[in-house]
Amino acid sequence: MTYGTHATMMIKENVNIKVMQERLWHSKSSTTLDIYTHILSSMQRIVVDKLDEMFECDFYCDSNELRIAGGLSK
């Protein structure tokens, strides 16, 4: 297994950056972040999509409760 594959797997499993640094034999965690930033940035879209889903549900659920309780229209 390559270092890149190993790092990618750890990132996807949300392994702590300090643990990754030690396993990849980097002297500083900033080195690990500098090298694997491209993987982290590609994961941003996933986070944004998940947050959108959470906020849409919260807004929709809250709006429905208000509509039912207060008679608000759509």
- Classify the beta-strand content into a percent band: under 5%
Helix/strand-derived class? Answer: mainly alpha
Number of strands: 0
Distance between the termini: 55 Å
What about the largest sheet?
none
Helix content: over 70%
Could you list the spans in which at least 5 consecutive residues all have pLDDT below 50? 66-74
Integer-rounded radius of gyration:
20 Å
The outline comes out as elongated
* SSE succession: HHH
Mean pLDDT over all positions: 76
Number of helices in the DSSP assignment: 3
What's the short version?
The chain has 74 residues and is mainly alpha-helical. The protein has helices spanning 3-12, 17-23, 29-70.
Based on the model shown, name its key terms.
74 residues; 3 helices; mainly alpha
Care to describe what's here?
Helix content is 80%, strand content 0%. It is an all-alpha fold. α2 (17-23) packs antiparallel against α3. It is elongated and about 40 Å long. Mean pLDDT is 76; it is low at 66-74.
Q: What is the secondary structure topology, with strand pairs?
A:
Layout: H1 3-12, H2 17-23, H3 29-70
